[in-house]
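name: query_chain
kind: protein
chains: 1
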Amino acid sequence: ATSGAFTVQGNAVAYGGGLWVAGGSNYTGSNLLKSVDGKTWTPINLGQFPPFPQFLSVFYANGTWIAGTYQYYNYNSIFYSTDGSTWNSPTTAYTTPYSTYSIGYGLDQTANNVFAIGADYPGIWTSPTGATWQHIAPSGFFGANPIRALVYINSKWYGLGGDGTSATIKLSVDLQNWADATFVSAGFTTAYRDWE
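structure:
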């Protein structure tokens, strides 16, 4: 069993640097909490964020936490922290995506490690540290459809996008150039294949 001040729907949880961080929201409020054991949770001060932050994603890599929210009233939707307790807004104010659904960490088109954001605004946002972000418009990507998931595994980026009625999975090695994934059917299951 867990204890702590969970009062809303949980949307995301991540572990790194000896700490768990979980975030969530609904129409009545928001939670961002931390834990060292996954059982006892402590609320993180929401006064560091804009009014009514709706946490959608949490991610940890390379000593940095990234939290993604729903953006409204021209507030940032991305925040970063080095300890999970004190959070900062990027210096690139008002240019971050509307709803930050997914966060990944891997190599970009210049072979540098970056955080990458998948959101409901076309394109991808990248940052080496979480402090400054840039928007890139990849080729062969999802058009105007939201990016619901973005992960980096075995030197490849995988993106999941959709318009509410259908979904598409694409892959990339550099975040800039994307291609449709190939699926093979085997009986009653569908397996993913990223090679020809």
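note: Residues 55 and 85 are 15 Å apart (CA to CA).
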